Amino acid sequence: MDIPPRLIIHESRYWVLNHRMDSALPGYLMLSAKQMTHSLAALPIEAQAELGVLQARIQKAIDDQLQPKRLYIGRFGHGAGYAIHFHFIPVYAWVEALFWEDERYRLLQTFGSIDSALAQTDGAELMLFVWREFCERPEPPPVQGPSVDQVIAALRTALSPASV
To answer: Which residue ranges form the domains of the chain, and what is each CATH number?
Structure first.
């Protein structure tokens, strides 16, 4: 699938980093191999070696520029037509607050109650919330803070070779 150039944040010889195409959540990034494979082992050793360093740089840029409450990094996709890729999902305090305010997600609550100081959730529940509300909903919740375009610009600068 072709990524619109306006969403590309960084490219290396083996990897491309872009803002997720269907996400209204600023800072939801995808790091994809340029080689079409679903296996890390099938990538050249140089691509494998670059992956860890690149993931660390991306995490630092997100932490420094966006300051999310949490940052989830994972590999979930396995659909045809997509190379191996990793999701970088920032969960801002305002996103977590929206999660707690939405009664539909109380069915997922692991323990405690929304009124309790012990009320907690886990990463899977928050990722489901982000995917359903910011990626799949035709009318996602309003964003607080920088827009997708502003986040892309800030992360491009932070990940530019001059900033290393």
So the answer is: 5-159 (3.30.428.10)
